[in-house]
Amino acid sequence: MGVDYYKILQVDKNATDEELKKAYRKLAMKWHPDKNPNNKKEAETKFKQISEAYEVLSDPQKKAIYDQYGEEGLKGQVPPPDAGGPTFFQTGDGPTTFRFNPRNADDIFAEFFGFSSPFGGGGSGMRGGSFGGIFGDDIFSSFGEGRPMSQGPRKAPPIEKTLPCTLEELYKGTTKKMKISREIADASGRTLPVEEILTIEIKPGWKKGTKITFPEKGNEQPNVIAADLVFVIDEKPHPMFTRDGNDLVVTQKVSLAEALTGYTVHLTTLDGRVLNIPVNNVIHPNYEEVAPGKGCQFQKILQRGVILGSNSTSNSQQG
Q1: pLDDT score recorded for residue 122
Q2: Is 197 exposed, middle or buried (0-12, 13-18, 19+ CB in 10 A)?
Q3: Fewer beta carbons below 10 Å: N end or C end of the chain?
Q4: How would you classify the pairing of strands 247-253 and 242-244?
Q5: Could you report the per-residue pLDDT of 134-172, keeping only the tens digit for each?
Q6: What is the rounded CA–CA span in Å between residue 318 and residue 247?
Q7: Can you name the residues that pair with 317 across neighbouring β-strands?
Q8: Percent of the chain scored above 70 by pLDDT?
């Protein structure tokens, strides 16, 4: 197979994009030629191999050809099927020969860290630019070899979206599917629009303000870690009930005669039960009466009662 890109990058064949990026960052820092002035030639070789391995394994097309044909397939000795794109071209030997042109190692490094030569030493020798060494040793600090650095990938702030739910949905639980549109970056740093469907499991008993986080589902950008997408539960108004913690509050009007002679509250709970709760005491404004064990349960919380009140209005609570 020739060069073993998986071994070079120290990942397995099922490595995710994030695992590939993490491996590249660690190894590129370790073997950057300007980090190894005493064995620069060896470092340059390893640095280029690491960059080439990341370029191949992070690109689905190149990875598929490599997995089937190895390094030889990428570099012209075996004709990969359906090869195309700017990194493959035909030679004078005819249409059965293809070639892979590795990108500049400094360019890949610069996409991750914002510059190609942290010490101003000209990078891996593949390009002539210099950044004057203004970053000093701090470029390597994120790997425990210096002071905290201010350069390199940063995490974008979280994006919050309101997720309205009915009281019935919060009581019983439900599943919601949310369609999102975002930008993702390919191996070359170009961004492409995509649409995704996210599934959100609403658990029974969740309250307004509960947050559901989908890590790194924001737009992808070079040198920026995508933002987390956060859905925040909001409670839609209910025609009868208002939630107060794990209680449900109901307001009813009561005539003066009913307030003096007795009144029966008729309620249908969120789980469909019909309650008939007699109030035999004289009802006055803000009067409350508890009917133990008649309320609903949230997340197996102990059932509460029903509270009634007022000679013109009455409040009932159940939880």
Answers
A1: 47
A2: exposed
A3: N
A4: antiparallel
A5: 334 444 444 444 444 445 578 889 999 999 999 999 988
A6: 5
A7: 249
A8: 69
| C-alpha to C-alpha distance for 294 and 269, rounded to whole angstroms | 9
In the structure encoding, which two tokens stand for residue 178, read together?
Answer: 């949310």
Q: Which DSSP string do the residues of the chain spell out, in sequence order?
A: --S-HHHHHT--TT--HHHHHHHHHHHHHHH-GGG-GGGHHHHHHHHHHHHHHHHHHTSHHHHHHHHHHHHHHHTTSS--TT--STT---BTTBTT-----PPPHHHHHHHHHS-S-TTSS-TTTTS----TTTTGGGGGGGGTTSSPPS-S-EEPPPEEEEEEE-HHHHHH-EEEEEEEEEEEE-TTS-EEEEEEEEEEEEPTT--TT-EEEETT-S--BTTEEPPPEEEEEEEPP-SS-EEETTEEEEEEE--HHHHHH-EEEEEE-TTS-EEEEEE-SPP-TT-----TT-S--STTPPP-------SSEEEEEE-
For residue 59, give the amino acid letter. D
